[in-house]
Specification:
Elements lengths: L1 H16 L6 H18 L9 E6 L3 E6 L4 E5 L9 E3 L11 H19 L5 H4 L1
Antiparallel strand pairs: 1-2, 2-3, 3-4
Helix pairs in contact: 1-2
Length: 126
């Protein structure tokens, strides 16, 4: 089961590498695959992750799961595919934590810079 999940994750990352932008469907599948993979690494193979919350803006997708947990994914393939995640913590649309706001703001600016300057991440393309 773990090998199949790993193969699926690799295939999805490969698909994402061929297109510059990441759409919501691709991002949600990556989020589910990632959280299931991480969950299985700590021995929790019984939990099923279903997306019940989406926060989408011009640069990020944040997917929240029914029983807690979230994954943050950029909408550009030249940025690392997983920016952050939690297996347990919920995510809310209104983010009050100043450190998290600042961190997400920094990623927003980085993604905007990558897009506007057409920066290519050679490591993600090789």
């Amino acid at each position: 089961m773990k090998k199949i999940l790993l193969i699926i994750i690799i295939l999805i990352f490969t698909i994402i590498l061929f297109g510059k932008d990441v759409n919501e469907e691709q991002a949600s599948q990556v989020a589910i695959n990632w959280i299931e993979y991480i969950d299985s690494k700590i021995g929790n193979n019984i939990r099923e992750f279903k997306i019940n919350q989406k926060i989408v803006n011009e640069n990020l997708f944040i997917f929240g799961f029914e029983d807690g947990g979230f994954v943050i994914i950029p909408n550009d393939k030249d940025i690392s595919p997983i920016l952050g995640y939690s297996l347990n913590s919920p995510i809310t649309e209104k983010i009050d934590n100043p450190a998290l706001k600042d961190w997400l703001g920094t990623y927003q600016k980085t993604i905007e810079f990558v897009k506007s300057n057409k920066v290519i991440n050679t490591k993600s393309r090789n």
